[in-house]
Here is the input.
Amino acid sequence: MTTIDLEDQFMKRVAADEKIEPKDWMPEKYRKTLIRQIAQHAHSEVVGMLPEANYISRAPSLRRKAALLAKIQDEGGHGLYLYCAAETLGVERDTLIEELHSGKAKYSSIFNYPTLSWADMGAIGWLVDGAAILNQVPLCKCSYGPYARAMVRVCKEESFHQRQGYEILLTLCNGSAEQKQMAQDSLNRWWWPSLMMFGPSDVDSTNSEYSMKTKIKRFSNDELRQKFVDATKPQADILGIKIPDSDLKYNEQTSHWEFGEINWDEFHNVVKGNGVCNKIRLKERQQAWDNGKWVRDAATAYAEKREQRKNESKQVA
Amino acid sequence: MSNTKNWPLWEVFIRSRNGLNHKHVGSLHASDSEMALENARDVYTRRQEGISIWVVESKNISASDPKINEDMFDPAADKVYRHPTFYDLPDELKHM
Ligand SMILES: [Fe+2]
Ligand SMILES: [Fe+2]
Here is the structure.
């Protein structure tokens, strides 16, 4: 069969909602697009542990601390599911990690913003995990089997993340005036970066068209962003805090909340590496990797020694 | 020291409760089978998803090639008589 035939067959399978599995033929562009997206997603899960880790020792109660720890541990697990999904496409784990640490690979820009108060643990769970859920739910139906299956596991775990975050803010909003102000301040800082999480507007999104065509993606960036605004506005009302957008207004005709202009210069600037925390996040990741080297080496040496002993005792017997 | 950079890859299978098969849930890297089991517990059973874990090094799995699926699974294609609905029996005969 020629490549054109194979490509044709592949597109037909995708159009019929068949899943593509690791050993199936796939176009190079599909493979590359998936590796880039899944790796970027995995890196985001792992780097995303850092801003929250900062608050494990600062959680206001044992209950909050246990929940935060469990959430962060989940994110590590999400990173692992995703790295494994990427590996089914023929890329090595160490290569992916190297690309993250060298700054070659990207991760979600949201994690380059600083966490300044405990309320930020609430806002991250509510808004950042909330936005992630909206992105991830349609990915459960992604055309690539291993990615879709990883997403099913991830989505099952995410809903507690959002709920624990919202509960943090709810508690603050029902507390003293200062506590409520902390929650408002946190919303003010996280709102716009959360909207940016859905990526550039459809007209400027370079990778979207191919991803939609091959059903890696099912909704456009702008569609998901609109869903997020519509879902989040009533949740802010329940908390009694105000979304920092003077243009936010309900459109009776479309039944959608219209929102103001996003500062895309800021977005591109953070993507380029100039956000408040880009450097520290990468440095902390590199340090974690370097500091873990002796553990990796020791485990390898131990495994080899055990294997050797097993072989020796076999010879004696 | 081994010169492979990555620890070997393991496939993880979990039995969610007695009476059910072990089912493939994903994979992970570990230096040996013991670590693979412990990591599988930490990653894949954090919410009581299982009561038994199998791990097997991925390199030990032989897989059929989807490119030859037609030939591979052809023998079953023309054997409708292996299915109960192939047999013509009267309607009065219930539950067979
Ligand atoms: Fe996650
Ligand atoms: Fe999460």
